[in-house]
Amino acid sequence: MTPPSPNRPAALVTAPLGRSGLARLSEVVEVVHEPWIDGTALRMLDDAALAARVDAGGFRVVVVEGDVVGAETLSRPLLAVGAVRGDPTNVDLAAATAAGVPVLHTPGRNADAVAEHTLGLLLAVLRHTVDADHEVRAGEVWRDGTIPYQRHRGGELAGRTAAVLGLGAVGQAVAWRLQALGVTVRAYDPLRPDASHDLAATLAGADICTIHAARGAVAGHLVGAAELAMLARGAVVCNTARGALLDTEALVDALRAGHLAGAGIDHVEGEAPPPDHPLLSLPGVVVTPHIGGATVETEGRGAAMVADDLGRLLSGRSPQHCANPAVLDATEVRA
Length: 335
Description:
By secondary structure, this protein is α/β, with parallel strands linked by helices. It contains 13 helices and 11 strands.
């Protein structure tokens, strides 16, 4: 194998990127692709294992999704770390900054995917899609002498008011989609001047509450019993952000009391609820296993963003998305 040139350093890519994403990365680095998610046994590398693999391959760049990049890996002569995540929580940013290694990340790469999944959950709840599907498969279309039209009269999105909590890339993508469907949108995000800074006013009387705040936006739950009580009776709650932002016990209580008509949830605290979790036995609830961003387009977009920023970095220009920008001012790219 011909050694890579300084302008095309060797890169270990453990993120699942797909053919188009790999082609884009291959334009700027020599790619060795070892995706963690392929195969029946998932292979997530800890810091020590990743450092050993970097040593074995002589890699100067690593591009990860879930593998842990800590002080041991960052002590190697890396040019950059790419994390195909909006928030690179799997990378020790303090250690990277101390080592002078730029951490490239991909904010907004999954915004369209999560926004579409949010709408899918809302529509599934409002139109009883999952229950209706189960009835067809069970041969119960004419159950108990009734017809589906009687059992599954739902609601429309048009004409409702939605409280969008968090107006980052995903929240914005959800907001304009809802508006296009005839929904009045009120937004809460204290970091954005174009959103209301008053959570209570945003929630008051809303028919939909959809959560898109970042991890760590609040110390505890962003939405608990008090916030759920502010919504209109018969409202629907959707959470495609982090489970910790929504008080699950309060959600169950509000559903049982009839204050809420339903919920669409893509992420719960603890990642996977046990089969006997009370949320799963309630009507009007649709739960998916944290798949909001799981699209091939998301993977390709993340790869393109990292590739573009690697190209900038290797040519001496500043990357657009660097999680520790202080290193760009203090350190030149190490060939």
